[in-house]
Amino acid sequence: MEARRATSPRASPEARVLEMIRALLTELGSHQALRRVTLQASLERDLGIGSLERVELLLRLEKEFSIRLADRVMTEAETPADLVNALLRRHSGHPENFRAAQILSPLEPPGFSYDPSSAATLDEVLRQYAQAEPKRPHIHLRRQDGEIYTIGYGKLFDGASAVASGLFERGLERGQTVGIMLPTCEDFFFAFFGILQAGGVPVPIYPPFRPDRLEEYAQRQSLILRNAEVRLLITFHEAERLLRLLRPRIPRLSAVTTVDSLGKAPGRSMLATAARHDVALIQYTSGSTGDPKGVVLTHANLIANIRGIGQAIGIGPTDVGVSWLPLYHDMGLIGSWLCSLYFGFPITILSPLDFLTRPERWLWAIHNYRATLSAAPNFAYELCVRKIDPSALEGLDLSCWRAAFNGAEPVSPDTLTRFSQRFEAYGFRPETLLPVYGLAESSVALTVPPLGRIPRVDCIDRTRFEQNQKAELSKSSTLRFVSVGRPLSGHEVRVVDDQGIQVEERRQGRIQFRGPSTMAGYFRNPAATRQVFLNGWLDTGDLGYQAEGELFITARLKDVIIKGGRNLYPQEVEEVTSEVEGVRRGCVAAFGVTDPKMGTERLVVVAETRESDSQARDRLTADITAHVGSSLGIPPDIVHLVPPFVFARRPDQPPTSAMVATR
User: Fold this and answer.
1) Where are the extended beta strands (E) located within 210-356?
2) pTM of the full structure
């Protein structure tokens, strides 16, 4: 999206801000929200402006008013009036000298003979590194004040041991689950390994974007915590009061506590000894309403996946990582942090907010730490292409970056090209881009392309593909698919038809896989587990084809919308929308629509209503936007109201986007 002039500079700040919001909503296609633009309108609930749209809006405001807003405006501003106040008060952040950030000196390989390939569990890996080189830097964490806090292997082990002692004191038994509701901070790392050292099972969950809405958030997450049977919940101080609210919904929950509280245990208990097939993690990709699905992963699953990634791209202890990905997400947790821990290389970690407010921080962290490895969803690469001012890149050098993983959502060939072209002048090489494919059920990664090759893109004959599912090459076609590479070592991928029979090369079918990274199943959900396992193969719910041993993703069969790297299930959105008064219950469709400009999907909700009055329909649209946003953490981009009986379907058949007769 191109920023455009809102109004005359002589107009009042209020008028300029409102006009810029209207311009943004118009470009987003959110025409119904235009009528609700006032100074007191809720950016999220009334106008449907989520985190990605906020990034765009704040960048435009900064350019229009020649000001640099503080990061906290991103999370604290609830209304256009709040934005005006921030501008009038010159509520700005300090100019950031990116080149002045702490520089990490190149590290020599570890001076000890420990080989992680002999480790059976993740806590064994940490213990061995901590004993061999306790002061060796492991994590360089950017705190909210911009300062870098370094955590060595010894510090991580000691902090985790203190948490483990506190968990023992509170009666945690082997195999019991402990929720982690924390943002990106040092406490997360201590909590995660403290739970493992105590013999428990970590359950990271999506942390609240706004701490002042903890009650709403707790209600959203209670189904996940209940399904996971969490015994304790580790969180931040402001959230300790949630026990009274959560206990009626989560019978097994005995305490809501913090890392500081757990660390005050008087003694140090013996650490629990885990085995390779013990559960190391339960990961919920979604499920805050309806039927939560927790992916159960053992130590063996995680280590097999990490080793497979390392073998595919030749990871070693002299690599350096950078990540801003959320730690509750598999790509941030396993693919970035735990991978760095296993191979013994340092990693610089920023928060997602650090990236969203200033995308250039990610690139400058790579520059300053001479990072070689970093990953992000497709939308992040697009954000860097479109939203970073050239003045913020002066002196940037990305020549050290050797593997730029692009995954967690569909990969756009246009984004790959645009990113390479934009940052070629800063030392970035096109062959650094690695479009990858993975899913939580395979721990994180499943396929990786070969190193040193420009991303492979197939141009396919659209007519032949649509008629017979055959992916035949055509120079004149605009239908393009990106190769996501070959399976990790020890893993297998195949493409089958609806009868489960493997299809020929270059024919589209269902993608299935098997291998040592494959999940044990969905926690306390045997029916869902049986549904995805077919004769030893796991069905991904994705469509694709294979060519010369490489996999190409073409579409998704499973009901999932991926917006900004986050997974949303249509049935969740539809159920929440149906709760709004005025919506015909069960007559709702939610689906994603690709937005090339944002590099991700937009969330569309279509709902039947008997309301015909225009003002009543406006209120209903606002109510749907607000309720979905507060219930799921992401408001819909478009809400479309239609008359009754638009969905042509059987009474027992849920609505889909294809059934919408009117748009």
Assistant:
1) 230-234, 255-257, 279-284, 294-298, 321-323, 347-349
2) 0.83
